[in-house]
Amino acid sequence: xxxxxxxxxxxxxxxxxxxxxxxxxxxxxxxxxxxxxxxxxxxxxxxxxxxxxxxxxxxxxxxxxxxxxxxxxxxxxxxxxxxxxxxxxxxxxxxxxxxxxxxxxxxxxxxxxxxxxxxxxxxxxxxxxxxxxxxxxxxxxxxxxxxxxxxxxxxxxxxxxxxxxxxxxxxxxxxxxxxxxxxxxxxxxxxxxxxxxxxxxxxxxxxxxxxxxxxxxxxxxxxxxxxxxxxxxxxxxxxxxxxxxxxxxxxxxxxxxxxxxxxxxxxxxxxxxxxxxxxxxx
Length: 282
Ligand code: NDP
Description:
By secondary structure, this protein is α/β, with parallel strands linked by helices. Helices cover 41% and strands 15% of the residues. The chain is built from 11 helices and 10 strands. The strands form 2 sheets. The protein has an 8-stranded parallel β-sheet. Strands 1-2 form a two-stranded antiparallel sheet. Strand 5, helix 3 and strand 6 (105-110) form a beta-alpha-beta unit. Helix 3 (86-99) packs across helix 4. The longest helix is centred in the first third of the chain and has 14 residues, at 86-99. The chain is globular. The site of NADPH dihydro-nicotinamide-adenine-dinucleotide phosphate (NDP) has 26 residues, from helix 9.
C-alpha cells in the first residue's frame, strides 16, 4: 500500500514526498511545535515554509527537537519579492538556512515571478545548487510565459512550480505544460483555506466514501499526480489529512471534482500579484 512517505523524483533525481505540511500562518511557537510534532508522528516528512511566513525559526527548532535524521526530512522555503536579485538572494538564503537550523535546504523557491530580479536570483540559486547548499531549486506562482522567459535566460530548469490549485481552480493546462517541460506541479491552498468544505458535490462523494472532504480533496490531487502541502494547526486534522492511502476515487468521482473548476483564485495571480501586494503593503 502507498504511504505518506512515498516520494516522486524531481527532474534532477531528488526524491520529494507527495504530501507535506504547509505552515503559512503557523506563527505561534507552541502551536507550531505541536503541529510539527503531530505531523512527524503521522509520517509527514515534507514541510513547506517561506521567509515571509515568519516561522522558519519555529520550523527549524521543532524539527531539531523531534530528533528525526536530517536526511529523512524534506524542507522547502522561499525567497520573498524583496529578497530577489543575485546578492539579495544569496543573503536571504543564508538567513533562511540559519533560521531553519540546517546545513542545507531541500528545495528553495522563488516565491513570486518578479522579473528581472528573478533572473538574477536564479543565478544565485544555480550556484547554491552547484555548491550543495540546496538539493533542488524551483519557482512558485509562475505561468507558462514566465517559465519560458526564465528558461530563455538561465541554464537550469526549475524542479517544481508551486501554484494555487484546488477544486475551484483546476489548472490542468498548466500541469500539462509543466509536465512537458519536466517541471513538477505542487498545489498550495488545496482546501481554499476552508472554502471547499461546504461544497455539495464534495459532500456527496464524502458521504459515499465515508471520509471527510479534506482527505477526499487530497486524494484527488494525489491521483492527479500533484504534490500538495495542506496546512493545519490541529493534530487531529493533521492526522486526518495524512490518511488518504486507504481509499481510491473512481474515474467518475475524479471527473466530478475536476468539473467544479470555476477559475476562482483565492490569492493573487502570477499576473496581478505586484498590485495585490502593493495594495496590502507587503
Ligand atoms: P489550505 O487550503 O491548506 O487550508 C488551511 C485551512 O484548512 C486552515 O484553516 C485549516 O484549519 C483548515 N483545515 C486543514 N485541514 C482540515 C481538515 N482536515 N478539516 C477541516 N479543516 C481543515 O490553506 P493554505 O493557504 O495554508 O495552503 C497550504 C500551504 O500552501 C500553506 O500553508 C503554504 O505552505 C502554502 N502556500 C503557498 C503559497 C505560495 O504563494 N507559494 C500561497 C499560499 C499558501 P486548522 O489549521 O484550524 O486545522
